[in-house]
Amino acid sequence: MPTLLLTALVLCLAEPVLPSQGTEYIQSCMNNLTEGLKWGSSQHNWDSRLAKLEQALAHSAPGKKGLSFKTNMLEAFVFSITAGSFRGLNLSSSMSVWSKGRASALPKDSINFPVELMEGMEAQEEQKLVCIYIHTAGMFLDEHNSSVLNNHILGAFLHNRQVGRLRRPVEIHFWHNKELDASNATCVFWQPAGMGSAGSWSREGCETQHQKGTVRCLCNHLTYFAVLLIQAHNLSKSELQSLTYISTVGCSISAAATFCTLLLCCIFRCQPRDDTTRIHMNLLAALLLLNASFLLSEPLAAGTTGSCQAAGALLHGSLLCALAWMGAEGFHLYLLLVKVYNIYVRHYLLKLCLGTWGLPMLAVVAVLIFKREIYGLHIISTADGYKNVTMCWLTSPPAHYMTLCYAGLILLFNVLVLAAVVVVLRRTRQQQQRARRDWVTVLGLTCLLGTTWGTAFCAFGVLLVPQLYLFTILNSLQGVFLCLWYLSTHRSKRGSDSSASR
Questions:
Q1: Distance between CA 499 and CA 459 in Å, rounded?
Q2: What number of other Cβ atoms are within 10 A of residue 501's Cβ?
Q3: pTM, full prediction
């Protein structure tokens, strides 16, 4: 297979410079660094050899068409450009060269430098633009041994000038033939090791855009760039398949259970007389919507982009509403068992509905109207690249983190309420039989308040796989547990009412 040949499309007028006699030295630096990568030299040796190559390239004198050097692991290019005549520069890697204005092969990895690269310089100021294309990530290993796409790293810098905060970003394209999206690949740049710390990859100043077969990186500075592969959790193919099966079956059963409970209530004309029962019914409705939207997410992912975005927004909105009603359950329980006195609130249920149905849905609709690209295809895969399922969900990491914070605050409040309830029950306990009923009550309240969702925050280390199974089983069947809880409490309430009437 022929090695990649970088073809320079120089859209600028370069000042003629006499070629220097240092090309042999530069090539020897290239060979020296390649040998170090091939035989596994220490990180210090790699850094020093790369710095020596950068200095050699920066002090060279390229001709009008620039200089190029390559080995089987490295390709380096240097151009002499003038600020007043610079009109942009594009470098692309291809299997063949450009001829007669046409390319004989489709471009792959490429970097496009904007005109703003020379902004703020005198018109006659001359700079050397150095580009280094590295075919191995061996010299850019962080403490986590992170992987980068195709092991390809593309570096660029100007001699004697730091480039940062560009108004128009540098555009880098990395090709691939994988299933990548915002959940498993992101554009990064390399931060060199400091005093007592290892080097690391950072996303700051880089925006990631995913296109078919290409990751597009928009960065406002110059350095070494790559696409960091975010490893899926250490799940095997069989584990991911079983978790998917459990989720589908559990959510189907929960959806059926909540639907039947609500339907029976309508058929028998149940008229909830107290706010507690009405809040239970709203929570069951929110869980029915959540389970239904989750089950519809995967088939709608195969449809149009608009339908997938709508499905992702519906799933996100139903999750926010369900969590909000769990918070409402905790707040109502706090008023009943902890505060007890002076708990009358005018239009209490209406205000709860505005906060639990209205605000989450309003936020989701606003996002869908003004920034709908936040929702889209989300691919779930294992670390070995096995793609299990594609669903419609959030594609923006900040939106994902905000949702986690929202859920975390609600669950923290409910855990505190549950702890307060346990304290109250311990104070009022009088006999062993009553104690057993109290523990059953606590277990029911645990499900009612959704505290089982807190297991999502324990997904790390050796607890990862067991926690995922526990999270999936408990929360996919939450609707079933709540239906049983509601039916048992409704039955005991009717029994006590009938006994009192006698």
A1: 49
A2: 6
A3: 0.61
